[in-house]
Amino acid sequence: MPAEQQRDQTTDGGAIKATISNSHPPVVNKPTAAGGGPAQQNPPPQLMLSATAAGVTATAKNVTVAHGKTALLTCKVGAGLLDNRTQVAWIRYSDLQLLTVGNQTYTADRRFSAGISGNGDAWSLQISHVQFRDEGGYECQIGVTPRVSHYIHLSVVEPTTVILGGSEMHIDIGSTINLTCLVQHTPEPPDYVFWTHNQQTVNYDSKRGGISVMVERGATTLSSLLIQKAARRDSGVYVCSPSSAPAAQASIHILEGERPAAMYSVARRPSIVRLMTLMLMNAVIYLSARQRSLL
């Protein structure tokens, strides 16, 4: 980034400028008219804090939110500083767009809004229906000398859910069904993971017995459904439904000695690995025989 970058943000015929430099955080200048004179519209409210009293920190330097959800970026201002004269500006780094000053919004994107939060000592920027293009850096700023600001990075993720083993599984009767659901890319581990069988919630305390679930929460959450002594009645569609990610499903077929036609056809065809192994063995035998004949 050059020593200093500057972009103009147009509002109602005037221009609102946000400046970012390597040595100083962004600063918002007064709007000016096209001819260089004062703008006719009301300028953004001035930031009224003194340098000695001001202090600003972020409640989180990195915020992760799921695509389509609501992001809340929060800066805490020093105790007693948020009064009627205090204004906090929010600026987006990617295009130096001035987003808000106080409660007033300076972008045409209505998904952005700001206001006092917490116990009255914090100022939050809210972004509703978050899109992937919203990912990047944001800065809350109080206009003092020297300027006081804090940087927050927003990450936007797309949660995913898969059931290991594929969407179609064949299980021998009497064996154990082991369905493992993998949940990834969620801002926080899901609060719960529901399992259903043929649209009915799996009952771990049913008279059938032998049904249990194990959950490991973390950056990647695992939920394993175990059903012992599989019977015909255990066939059907199983769905894994995390609280913060889309659902995934798998169809289970219980086999009683028989095998599906597709499995027969695969078993009767030599595998590529087997063919390659046979070809390699033939080549080795041929080269060995040729070498002995030359001796």
TrEMBL record:
Ranges annotated as biased composition (Basic and acidic residues): 1-10
Annotated region described as Disordered, given as residue ranges: 1-45
SMART domains cross-referenced by the UniProt entry: IG (SM00409), IGc2 (SM00408)
InterPro entries: Ig-like_dom, Ig-like_dom_sf, Ig-like_fold, Ig_sub, Ig_sub2, Ig_V-set, Zig-8
Gene Ontology biological process terms from the UniProt entry: synapse organization
GO cellular component: neuron projection membrane
Domain (Ig-like): residue spans on this chain: 45-142, 159-253
Pfam families assigned: Ig_3, V-set
Top-level taxon in the UniProt lineage: Eukaryota
PANTHER family (alphabetical): DEFECTIVE PROBOSCIS EXTENSION RESPONSE 9, ISOFORM A, DEFECTIVE PROBOSCIS EXTENSION RESPONSE DPR -RELATED
Identification of the protein by name: Ig-like domain-containing protein
Organism: Daphnia pulex
